Amino acid sequence: TIMKKIGTLIFGLLILTSCVEEKDTRNNIFDPFQTSVKVESQFFDLDTISLKEIEGKKGTKIYFIRESFDVDSTDKISLELKEFYNISDLIKNNIQTVTQDNELLESSGVIYLNFTKNGEEIKLKDSATIRVKFPFSLSEQDKIFSGEMDSTNQMSWSKTEAYFMVLRFNKTYQIDMGYDVTLDSLPYYQELWRKQDSIYEKTIGSYENIDKKVGSAVSLTNLGWINVDRFVEKPATMDFSFTNSLEVDGIVMYVLYDNLNSFTSYYPDETENIILTDVPVLENTYLIAVGIKDKQLYAQKLRVGDNLTQLSLQSINQTDLDELFKK
């Protein structure tokens, strides 16, 4: 009958439709800089010593005091250190500069500190601190942040308690002595150094050296990822929507800012219809889209404000990708 023929046709169409495989546009997380030069861990064997000044290859100094850790006298201690002091290192290691509340930061430098005893990770004792001297001077705008990396290798930062060391000449003992102060107190101590009498000139030698000694060290209350940052004032936030016609296995969107050591990155849910929400933007902000298909990289750089909604990713090699991110 006619009804039976129609039913058979509909059933056939259903089977045919079920056989058509849907295109998988789910995004796969990947590292565009997998073959680039990365920041390497530096390892220091502290054995069973009590005190030691440790200096990293890029100038970070860590002042190790064994009593700050809950360890036995026979435990062998080791330190793993990583130093990130330029925007290229931050980008290639995906250490983005936003807080957990999506506040944009500008980084002066990031370090990673990990102490172990007999191969097991150890923490500072309660109320203990570890003193770190950075290879740059701190300012009253700087804050110390502690970082957490999630399962998708995305970093977020939160403010952490820290104390800043200033040196002050002690006339009784005729030596410089270190004092822990809050960051708000730094301008006072900096001015104090500059106004001291001839004893300081004889001891320090010049005001330039005094400036180097003031406000470059901090007493940290925790280990792991540490960032010296300042808040970027009043960035706007924008939503973006792009269509990507090139079939890729994964895509990542980077946001960069002219003349700032700042960036963030996003892994959208899918590779075809890309939606980004609440992205911090400034006057000169750029988006760089990087995709991958069968180990081949594709990229495109966009300027925020050009109102482009269709991506046009082009094949690119690792060297040219590194150049694309240079400011």
Helix content: 10-25%
Low-pLDDT regions:
16-20, 204-211
Gyration radius, rounded:
26 Å
Distance between the termini: 74 Å
Largest sheet, in brief, is: 7 strands, antiparallel
Write the element-wise H/E pattern from the N-terminal end onward: HEEEEHEEEEEEEHHHEEEEEEEEEEH
β-sheet strand percentage: 35-45%
Q: Number of helical runs?
A: 6
Q: What structural class do helix, strand and pairing data support? A: alpha+beta
Beta-strand segment tally? 21
Tell me, what's the shape? globular
Rounded mean pLDDT is 84
What would you say this structure looks like, in words?
By secondary structure, this protein is α+β, with helices and mostly antiparallel strands. It contains 6 helices and 21 strands. The chain has helices spanning 2-19, 87-92, 186-194, 198-204, 207-213, 318-324, and strands spanning 42-47, 51-55, 61-65, 77-84, 105-117, 120-122, 130-133, 143-149, 155-159, 162-170, 175-181, 217-220, 224-231, 236-244, 250-257, 263-266, 273-281, 285-293, 296-303, 310-311, 314-316. The strands form 4 sheets. Strands 1, 4, 5, 6, 8, 9 and 13 form a 7-stranded antiparallel beta sheet that branches. It has a 6-stranded antiparallel beta sheet with strand order 2-3-7-12-10-11, covered by helices on one side. Strand 2 and strand 3 (61-65) form a beta hairpin. The longest helix has 18 residues, at 2-19. The protein is globular. Mean pLDDT is 84; it is low at 16-20 and 204-211.
